[in-house]
Amino acid sequence: MFVFLFAWSSTSFAQQRKIRYESERTIKNEERYPGAFILSKVNDQVHFTHEGIEVWCDQAIHYAEENFFKAYGNVRMVQGDTVTMTSQYAEYNGNTQFAFASGRVFMQNPQSSLQTDTLFFDRTKQQAYYRSGGTIRDSASVLKSRIGRYYLEDEKYTFSSEVVITNPDYVLRSTQLDFYSETGHAYMYGPSTITSDASTIYCERGFYDTRGDTGYFVKNSRIDYENRILEGDSLYFNRNTNFASATNNIKVTDTVNKSVVRGHYAEVFRDKDSVFITRKAVAVALQEQDSVYIHGDTLMITGKADDRVIRGFYGVRLFKSNMSGKSDSIHVREKTGLTQMLGRPVIWSENNQLTGDTIHLLNNVVTEEMDSLKVFDNAFMIQKDSLGGYNQLKGKEMYGKFEDNKLSQVDLVKNTETLYYMRDDPGNLIGINKTLSSSITVHFEDQQVVDVYYYQQVDGVLYPEEDLPPNARELKGFNWRGEEKLNSVADLFIDEADYEPVPIEGIPLPEEEESFFEEREDKKHLLNEKSRLKQKDLQERAIDTLPATQDSTSRPEPLIEEELLEKTPVQDTLQQPSGTQQPSPAQKKDSISPVVIPSTKKE
Predict the structure, then answer these.
(1) 120: exposed, middle or buried (C-beta count within 10 Å: 0-12, 13-18, 19+)?
(2) pTM score, two decimals?
(3) Which of 391-395, 444-448, 588-592 has the highest mean pLDDT?
(4) By the 8 A CB rule, do 145 and 214 touch?
(5) Backbone angles phi, psi at 241, to 5 degrees
(6) Would you tell me which of 60, 68, 97, 114 could form a disulfide with 528, CB atoms 3.0–4.6 Å apart?
(7) What residue spans define the domains of the chain?
(8) Which of 11-20, 182-191, 284-293 has the lowest mean pLDDT?
(9) What are phi and psi of 5, to 5 degrees?
């Protein structure tokens, strides 16, 4: 970029060094270019030097007293061994250290290259600016923007309009972006997207390492995968490992299975199609117009979209409108509709409590309604009686059936026992039945026991209420946990401490910069009065409309025409006497001394 081509100078304007030049042909035409030398290439290009830069061109107009030149044709500027810029036209004001280049401007350095059509450079600020569209290439990406600004000391580009970074693996678009050419780091401010075949990232403030392919996003951020959407207060993304993590107010949406997982820390492994989420983690799945909530300290969701598996650990709680439950852990396979509750599981269905060593719930994957349940080992069902007391059924195993999401039948097998409060139609207590049998079938209507059938080796007694003391009204293993029942979604987090969000390391907004064309304190005009530009051209605008944006084949102002060169005598500093034989071109190159304006300050 043009900005690289000028070395910083602390010299004041009063002590400003004069521009030096070398030219094989030096012409003076006061009528057309008052006070200027017209310089032209014969074999070697015109050569300027000033404050650490070198400029070559085919033709030039040099105003020595004003310390200003215009360079035309194959312009090349070089700083040291690292930076080269070419263009079709350039001008430079040595007094204000303000420069302008146009016509296929191309700059290259070890980190990046820039192509644009017009470029302004302020050496005092050490900044360059374009508004006619530019393309920047580095080792990993191609950046394009309509407006751009470069800060030499920070090696930073600032883009403020229509920014596009194209990489073989993704395309980044932003309304405002800072790019550091040395590191390849990009900072996004305002609506931005990073789109690839596998994902789309959106944020309104974020960071992306274009060479390391990692990113960090902190405002309205989300990552859209093929069948998942990840949102959170802050997101981290690693394209190399297809890994993403999120912190605070996390939401992971499964767009295929209509489920959502929330929490305050999440990790997504795309290649394994898995999600890990913790800190107030809760999964929400829609079933038959009813949402099912699963909460645990930690939730893991794995498997492809057509075979998701949800695992919950450490204090799992389950809630839906007509059922709730608790267990140490849970395993849900959406493809089969099977939910396994492990470790002190308990299910509440209306006023029924079911416990056992392990509970399985089976959901109909077509109708999304509850189909059946199984309780393995130490199966125990308790129903709180409407007028006091508890109906109880126990056995080694229990099998239940649902109709319209309501428990309709329960079968208990192996060493079954019941304790049942028998009432007449008005609800008066007849007695308390205690029965042993090999198996039992119980029928329900509106969640109430209506029929009980005993099979094989039945041994039962109907006790009058007064003949069965309170301490004998509980079967062995009775454990009523009704106070733990979840009655609302809020109960998923009951007795849990409020979560304190982790402090997020934000990305501060960039400092508001003054206008690139801000008037200087010394009130000096940036432009020389002989400049092709006018002061109005330095006003900020949405797009460049300068003549310099014309195709470089159309010259914006007359150059040194062939007829002018033929009619205008060469102003050599060593005049040839009349009749003296003219030297050959090679001899002439050595014999003609360039016009040099001595510097006012020692080199």
Answers:
(1) buried
(2) 0.76
(3) 391-395
(4) no
(5) -110, 0
(6) 68
(7) 1-110+516-603
(8) 11-20
(9) -85, 0
In the 8-state DSSP scheme, what is residue 210? T
CB-based contact 77:65 (threshold 8 Å): no
Report the alpha-carbon distance of residue 412 to residue 454 in Å, rounded: 10
Cβ atoms of 122 and 516 within 8 Å: the answer is: yes
Contact by Cβ (8 Å): 118, 105: yes
Residue 392 CB coordination number (10 Å): 22
For residue 435, what are the CA distances in angstroms to 399, 431, 479? 19, 13, 19
Burial of 87 (0-12, 13-18, 19+ CB in 10 A): buried
The residue among 487, 484, 471 whose CA lies nearest residue 355 is 484
- Distance between start and end Cα atoms, the chain: 26
pLDDT > 70 in the chain, percent: 84
Which pLDDT score is estimated for 544? 53
What phi, psi does 83 have (nearest 5°)? -125, 135
Residues β-bridged to residue 531 = none
Q: What is the distance between the alpha carbons of residues 409 and 370, in angstroms, rounded to a whole number?
A: 13
3-state secondary structure 445-460: ECCEEEEEEEECCCEE
Provide the token pair at 484: 């733990």
Cα 359 from Cα 300, distance rounded (Å): 20
Contacts of range 149-156, beta carbons closer than 8 Å, 24 or more positions apart: 149/513, 149/516, 150/1, 150/3, 150/114, 151/126, 151/127, 152/3, 152/4, 152/8, 152/126, 152/127, 152/128, 153/126, 154/180, 155/111, 155/180, 155/181, 155/182, 156/180, 156/181
Within 10 angstroms of residue 241's Cβ, the number of other Cβ atoms is 12
pLDDT tens readout for residues 494-515:
888 888 888 888 888 887 778 8
User: Measured on CA atoms in the order 188, 190, 195, 198, is the torsion positive or negative?
Assistant: positive
Tell me how far apart the alpha carbons of residues 453 and 344 are, in angstroms, rounded to a whole number: 28
For residues 47, 51, 52, 57, the Cα torsion angle rounded to the nearest 10 degrees is -20
The amino acid at residue 355 is T
Find, among 125, 155, 154, 123, the residue nearest to 138 by Cα: 155
> What's the chain's length in residues?
603
pLDDT at residue 4, rounded to an integer? 34
The answer to whether residues 2 and 31 touch, using CB atoms and an 8 Å cutoff, is no
Helix/strand/coil for 12: coil
Separation between Cα atoms, residue 236 and residue 210, nearest integer Å: 14
Give residue 552's pLDDT band: very low, low, confident or very high (50, 70, 90): very low
Tokens 């919950």 — which residue?
Answer: 312
CA–CA separation, 121 and 102 (whole Å) = 12
**Inter-CA distances, 188 with 129, 163, 191, 193, 194, Å:** 19, 10, 8, 9, 11
**What type of residue sits at position 258?**
K
As given in the structure block, the two tokens for residue 218 are 């902190």
List all residues 6 or more positions away from 439 whose beta carbon is below 8 Å from its beta carbon.
395, 411, 412, 413, 414, 416, 454, 455, 456
The answer to whether residues 310 and 295 touch, using CB atoms and an 8 Å cutoff, is: no
Find residue 98's DSSP bridge partners: 93, 122
Q: Which two tokens stand for residue 533?
A: 């530009």
